[in-house]
Design brief:
With about 130 residues, the protein is mainly alpha-helical. Helix content is about 65%, strand content about 0%.
Length: about 130
């Protein structure tokens, strides 16, 4: 490659990166819409009165089948997910504690303070008591 200057090669590499990004974007979009279309084609069937009924072990339901769940279930689920993810971060921090500097320890202390603030806030509001 004697006649090619270094700046021409850099421009060529930059365009190659753009082509990769566009290709991945096209592939991701095609995959998303393709799977939606495929699932619609596979599951799209005629609706009959029998298929629209709720099914519970072959027994006809009595009363309204669309009952609401209490808000407490959602609050407990959200609190569980939030604190479960934070516990994973604390576990990973405990594994890498020897490699962290003082800056890492201070940042983890700030993280724990924010975590405990959220816990005490939920406790004070009464979200952790079962009613």
């Amino acid at each position: 490659m004697r006649g090619v200057r270094a700046s021409d090669r850099e421009n060529e590499l930059d365009q190659t990166g753009l082509i990769y990004v566009l290709g991945f974007g096209f592939a991701a979009t095609t995959f998303v819409f393709g799977t939606i279309l495929f699932s619609w084609l596979v599951t799209h069937r005629r609706r009959t009165a029998q298929k629209g009924l709720p099914y519970e072990c072959g027994i006809d339901t009595i009363g309204d089948t669309w009952s609401r769940f209490g808000l407490a279930f959602y609050l407990y689920a959200l609190l569980f997910v939030a604190f479960d993810v934070e516990i994973i971060f604390i576990y990973l921090w405990a594994i890498a504690i020897r490699a962290l500097s003082v800056n890492g320890l201070v940042l983890m202390a700030v993280f724990l303070v924010v975590l405990m603030y959220g816990e005490f806030y939920a406790w004070k509001k009464g979200d952790l008591t079962w009613r």
